[in-house]
What does this fold into?
Amino acid sequence: MYIVKQKVNGKDYFYIRKSVREGEKVHSTLVCYGGKTREDAERKLNELNSEKENNKNEFLEKGTEEKKQITIEELANFCKSKGFVYPSSAIYGGLAGFWDFGPLGVELFNNLKQDWWNFFVKQRENMVGIEASIISHPKTWKASGHITNFNVNDYLVVCKNCKKSSKIDKPDLEKIKCPNCSGEFDWANAKIVEQMFKTKVGSEQTEVYLRGETAQGMFLDFKQIMQTSRMPLPFGIAQIGRCFRNEIAPRDFLFRSREFHIGELEFFLNPEEKECDLLSKEHLNLKLKFLSAEAQEKGEKSKKTTIGKMLKEKRIGEWHAYWLAEQIMWFNSIGLSEIKIREHTKSELSHYSSATFDIDYEYGFGSMEIAGNADRGQYDLTQHQKASSQSLEIFDEKTNSKILPKVIEPSFGIERIFLALITKAYSKNKKGETILKLPAKLSPVKAAIFPIVKKPEFEKIARKVFEDLKKEINVTYDSSGSVGRRYARNDEIGTPFCITIDGDSLKNDDVTIRNRDDTRQIRVKISDLKETLKKLIENEILFEKAGKLIK
Ligand code: GAP
It folds into this structure.
């Protein structure tokens, strides 16, 4: 830990900071406010050092709180063993930061993307979706500021004392000490590690980039989309797609990888339009845990608030608040309510943003960013207008004037949400067997169909039920092993319902449906099965109301 002086409005303030190693990378983080004089700060630092000795646990690094349910390594092993996610090109030893979705993983990932798309695109009249190319004209990334800002943020630097190399962010240049020995870094020889992947196109081998964010495709197409879709302002463009970042230290399984998916929407509005007519009571009363920029500067914890209170305190504009609330509501709808909103401090803001909020998720292994919400203002359209010499102004019918819209951008790391879903769902029953309690609508397999024993009379009906259901629902047929073993196999991969054809089915044309999360069973007529199952998957009916409960 060390002391740094900061000038605010001409006055000196002292802060205690520390160098923190996350994976291979080192960065500086605020410990607390130290006082208005160096002496105050030194006293505080001494207190902290002695407290640290007495109680090491109080100074656990971010992400190591003792709330462990499943560690990131256990999660990666589980995902590999069940066919959710494998390391890419494993037969050659793998490639750091690249992963493959296996048969179950791709189903869960597709269901997740589909649910996002339904919520943010299909259910809205003011939103359209696109799928832009991964490679675009190289001028895109110059104009967007990625080449001069984002691309050159990561540095490799060696300690003059212990000679260990560390990876640090540009804002920490010349500010931090070696976390290994507190020695000085050799700043003069710090090396940049570029974040954007380069490749070459065509016979002329023109140098181009793999996109670092999906957003730019939506800015480039904005005017044509507005014209072809005849969308009046305010309106949004949404996209889910692969992004590429040459992360200096890929780590924590899918959490920080070099190829991943962002789902994001760019919402365009008249910069003068301050009021959001879509804000409802539900938005205003939405409760959230909030960590403001000032609280972080003072080393304070997050506080409970509501979207309405944030608006009253003028922390956020109405449209920004509306989209933040919508993001939280979607997370709640997929069962991820353990979230906290963290305001970016001035020094953290991206080159394009005037205000950003991170949405952090409380993973069992720590609280980490899962999504973000930035006010990008007119930055991107202005930049592309200048660089392309094409006007991106549009005619706003409401105000009868030509304007360059501003943009609010909710964005989501889809792999990080995938990880949150599995972490939250992962549980054990009394026998120590794994049960993956995924929301039914997202589960890779919705139901497994079993003949109670492998005999033609049961198999004939079970096959018929399977053939009929599989046309519309992702179901599997499973006839090997005891029924108990088959339940356990399906619980482990998150199949919410198991359907058994037994002796009574032969007489009554019905089946049992077993509920994964509490093992209760109901009997349902085969003729009603498909519709009942659909309602159960969409959580439109209580399990005990969906059929005759077996006591
Ligand atoms: N257009 C805005 C943008 O790209 P970002 O915060 O850089 O913002 C969006 O990325 C989201 O993508 C983050 O909130 C995070 O969830 C996810 N993300 C960022 N870098 C990642 C990485 N290396 N691996 C996996 N997910 C990542």
